[in-house]
Amino acid sequence: MAKQDRKSPIQNFLQNGKEYPLIAGLLAGLYPVFFYATNNYTLVNTFGHFLYFVGLFIVLPAIFIYVTYRISRKIKDGVYTKYVIPTLGSFFFLFFMHIGYYGSLKKKISLGLLMLSCLIGFFLWKHAKKLLIVQGILGLIGLITFIPKPFQSFAYDDTWQVQKDNITAVQFTTKPNVYFIQPDGYVNFSELYKGHYKVTDSSFQKYLDREGFDFYPDFRSNYASTLTSNSATFMMKHHYYDKGLSLETFNARDIIVSDNPVLTIFKNNGYKTHLLTELPYLLLNRPEMGYDYCNFNYDEVSYIGTGLGKRVDIIPSLEQSLTREKAKPKFFFIEIFNPGHIHGNKGASLGIDGERELWMESMKMANERVTATLNIIKANDPNALIVIMADHGGYVGMEYTGEIYSKAQERDILYSIFSSHLSIHWPDGKKRGEKHLKSAVNVFRVLFSYLGDDNKLVDHTEDNSSFVVIKKDAPQGVYKCIDDQGNIVFKKQE
User: Which domains are delineated in the chain?
Assistant: First the structure.
């Protein structure tokens, strides 16, 4: 009989008559924090993020629920106390989940979640402990899902970053200021007036022509997003999406912002390096700042977010940087977030035609911002080496960017994704690099060959192929979709 009367820990928890406000607070944020960290690991894998998330998702709700619970017991003999734990526990759980899903605070959604939580508390207060058990189980599931992420980082293979030669030792024979301007998602002029774009306004191209820029038709990116493209560009090597393990390249922001051969070479040659960006997208995981100057400081970068939103004007920072330490040569990485690409998911899509019109409007803004930037540079630095290179295409012709993960072999679609703008203003007005400037991964190698007057550096250029991660309509993996010569192919990368 004694064995039959013995209660399980769960039964004892449900029937002991105690309430657990601190546990309710701890459990409310447990699954949401694991959910967010699992889906955004490369953004939150710092000790500062750990402290922030423990404080926001765990400590804050625990303190708030406990204090509210204690206060409620003193109001009208505690008549409202029974509603505190289920209401606040539900609200914090749902609120944090919405933050984790959207990466930002949505006021209307937050208000709706508060109302829903009040209904849960009012109607389900008798089941408050059952709700805690459910949150505990979800938290355990979240932990199990999260655990592989740190292990993947420990097993990360960075051998792809090793250079084929001693390029970092190159010594420049000429040291103009170098401006690397990147309008996001801007296709090459060779694609802009045909295919799915069919742009009729060529005024921007004519402006660049008047300003002495050389164009590189059919130039394209090797990868399909800002992070994957730029990590290969600044490393001057292929990463192949970490063999398909990542859609964004592991530690991409650290590669771009903290340490890469491009920054090393410029610094070795006495350059002061500047990162000017309209948005803190590259700074979200707070990488160690490898540039001598950046127009954002980390006090302005949220621990949670997408890094996208209202753009800042980079012109004042550019003007100030041009007057700073005039005797030293300068390298600028200037990031402009237009035209960008079409919407990322089907639910937000305006349809093929609507997305095209939206991209066209954004292209006009890009033209204006790049023109304003160039006008400042040319007025103050007429003999500069200026490179305008987009990170990828605009995806026009698709309903939403997520379609890229399905097998596609239509030429105009693939070039809409990978075709990217490249135009260069050479200080002496002589066009260079036509043979080697075919894709983004080789751009800096060609520039360093010119600056160092060393033709041997272009003997070690990378393959110009473009790659994509496929999840549908073919075995999952990394595929070459445009080969070195610009032909459409579909070959799995081993």
Answer: 7-153 (no CATH), 190-492 (3.40.720)
